Fold this protein.
Amino acid sequence: MAVTFQVVLFNPQIPPNTGNVLRICANTGSNLHIIKPIGFSLNEKSMRRAGLDYYSSVKMYVYDNLNDFLSKNNFKNIYLITKFGKKRYDEVNYKRNDYLMFGSEINGLSEEVYKKLNKSTRIFIPMYPKNRSINLANAVSICVYEAWKQINFSTF
């Protein structure tokens, strides 16, 4: 089966969230990219437990930093998911193999990301007023499933 999307986690901090994202990637045919530093070991039991037996079925790429990620990937579209986005996540026309980048649970995306990817589309997920954030795995699920829906849940 062909890859649907490229999910990018920038500095994830909570192992079960990353494990749940791994499971989302497995169930949607997406690859997972993790940009260090991260707040846990990739072998951590809680991450593996959350990812269940999907751990080995997802192509996972790990990068030392943002520059490492940028130098090893040639992308046409990368969407930055941020509460500072200008477009709502469902107002974007996703294409197969698009990259969707999510920030850390604690700090979101860094200024470095915004500077180096300044031409990228920033998108947001609506929230009830005065709330700060949505759980990382939930945000990934919302965006990836919307993107997959737009390509008719294609698996090839």
Observations:
- The chain is about 30% helix and 20% strand.
- The first strand starts at residue 6 and ends at 10.
- The mean pLDDT is 92.
